UniProtKB/TrEMBL annotation:
<keyword id="KW-0560">Oxidoreductase</keyword>
<dbReference type="GO" id="GO:0043818">
    <property type="term" value="F:precorrin-3B synthase activity"/>
</dbReference>
<dbReference type="InterPro" id="IPR012798">
    <property type="entry name" value="Cbl_synth_CobG-like"/>
</dbReference>
<protein>
    <submittedName>
        <fullName>Precorrin-3B synthase</fullName>
        <ecNumber>1.14.13.83</ecNumber>
    </submittedName>
</protein>
<dbReference type="GO" id="GO:0046872">
    <property type="term" value="F:metal ion binding"/>
</dbReference>
<keyword id="KW-0349">Heme</keyword>
<keyword id="KW-0408">Iron</keyword>
<dbReference type="GO" id="GO:0051539">
    <property type="term" value="F:4 iron, 4 sulfur cluster binding"/>
</dbReference>
<dbReference type="Pfam" id="PF03460">
    <property type="entry name" value="NIR_SIR_ferr"/>
</dbReference>
<keyword id="KW-0411">Iron-sulfur</keyword>
<dbReference type="InterPro" id="IPR005117">
    <property type="entry name" value="NiRdtase/SiRdtase_haem-b_fer"/>
</dbReference>
<dbReference type="InterPro" id="IPR051329">
    <property type="entry name" value="NIR_SIR_4Fe-4S"/>
</dbReference>
<keyword id="KW-0004">4Fe-4S</keyword>
<keyword id="KW-0479">Metal-binding</keyword>
<dbReference type="InterPro" id="IPR036136">
    <property type="entry name" value="Nit/Sulf_reduc_fer-like_dom_sf"/>
</dbReference>
<feature type="domain" description="Nitrite/Sulfite reductase ferredoxin-like">
    <location>
        <begin position="15"/>
        <end position="79"/>
    </location>
</feature>
<dbReference type="InterPro" id="IPR045854">
    <property type="entry name" value="NO2/SO3_Rdtase_4Fe4S_sf"/>
</dbReference>
Length: 378
């Protein structure tokens, strides 16, 4: 099993080369696109890219099919919409995930944290913060290293990933305390060769002390929701988290958009579910239980196409089963175990039961045409 692990995270200013051109990853401030910014993204995707837009598992927006020539004018257009950081270092550092169910206080907290990030020490590229201070935490299943949440007893807590409890903080203290926890992470030996995660440091027995010492339990988490109406608007999903720019432009006309790590957008204030091609609004849709990475030809590491097979298999999935079709053993689309995983190899697809893309298969070297008739899919 061989695949390339990038030591850095692509962004807008440092795009990633892919099989269909450059992938430009945007991290909208506060995880929100107002109607003007959303329309600007849609227009830029059409004008400077292929018009294909992906939603990432970290609530980012990715524009595909950008060329070396169109990258600079794309950045200029998006900078005008307030979506581009001053430089690559600032872009990399601003790794803040915000609950899509943010209230004004949460938005203010996320903005205040972003405002002090320049004072943070050098952190690994994937090191991130989660501001999950809505009515109930919803981001627990999304990787993060430092979390701001509500305590079960009320008030805010700052929690290091891997610890069951957090330190109490006020909203005014929270940004500086989050930076102090990041400083502790570095000082405690959390970074090796530019890499490291909080949970791994905690697993080695390190514990923050003093004001950062964990002592309050967080509120119980809510499971990530499916598409449908919620108190703050309409949640809509997309097959494999991908849409055309024309659809984004239509959604931009319906309201401001909150990004989620669940391949969905929240259209703020909308009290009905829009009926548009390319949207999934039925929470029972089988495609919601199917993960498939870009695959061939979009990803240069892919050993097969993934999404056509995933679409074919979706209606055949047993109830509750989760399917992951991966173009290689890296398993980008779904790092967690799935009920069934199909991993492309040079010899065909391997089938893994209740595991990850790189786990030991129960069947090997399957032809894509033969897979739908396997007993696992009937
Ligand atoms: S899992 Fe898919 S997207 Fe990730 S590297 Fe492999 S083929 Fe590419």
């Amino acid at each position: 099993m061989s695949f390339t692990v990038q030591g850095w995270c692509p962004g807008a200013l440092r795009p990633m080369a892919s099989g269909d051109g450059l992938v430009v990853r945007l991290r909208p401030p506060g995880g929100r696109l107002n109607t003007r910014a959303a329309a600007a993204v849609a227009e830029a995707a059409l004008r400077f890219g292929s018009g294909v837009i992906d939603l990432s598992g970290r609530a980012n927006v990715q524009l595909r099919g950008v060329t070396r020539e169109s990258h600079a004018p794309l950045i200029a257009a998006l900078r005008g919409a307030g979506l581009i950081d001053a430089d690559i270092a600032a872009e990399t550092r601003r790794n803040i995930l915000v609950t899509p169910f943010a209230d004004a206080a949460t938005d203010a907290l996320a903005a205040a944290l972003a405002g002090v990030l320049a004072t943070a020490p050098a952190l690994p590229g994937k090191f991130g913060f989660a501001v999950d201070t809505g009515a109930a935490p919803v981001l627990r299943e999304t990787p993060a290293d430092i979390r701001l949440e509500r305590a079960a007893a009320g008030g805010l807590i700052l929690r290091a990933e891997g610890l069951a409890e957090g330190a109490p903080v006020t909203a005014a203290e929270a940004p500086a305390a989050a930076i102090a926890l990041a400083q502790w992470f570095v000082a405690a030996g959390g970074v090796t060769d530019g890499r490291g995660r909080m949970a791994a440091l905690i697993a080695r027995g390190a514990r923050p002390e003093g004001a950062l010492a964990p002592r309050l339990a967080p509120a119980s988490a809510c499971a990530p929701p499916g598409p449908g109406l919620c108190p703050t608007g309409a949640l809509v999903a997309f097959p494999f988290g991908q849409m055309r720019a024309e659809l984004l432009a239509e959604l931009a006309g319906l309201g401001a958009l909150r990004l989620t790590p669940w391949r969905m957008l929240l259209i703020e204030g909308l009290s009905y579910l829009p009926d548009l091609p390319g949207l999934i609004t039925d929470p029972a849709a089988p495609l919601l239980r199917v993960y498939a990475c870009t695959g061939a030809p979009g990803c240069p590491q892919a050993l097969a196409e993934t999404r056509p097979l995933a679409r074919t298999l979706a209606p055949q999935l047993p109830p509750e089963a989760v399917l992951h079709v991966s173009g290689c053993a890296k398993g980008c689309a779904h790092p967690a175990p799935a009920t069934l995983t199909l991993t492309a190899t040079p010899a065909g697809f391997d089938l893994i039961a209740r595991g990850r893309a790189a786990d030991t298969p129960c069947r090997r070297a399957l032809g894509a045409a033969d897979i739908p008739s396997l007993p696992e899919f009937s």
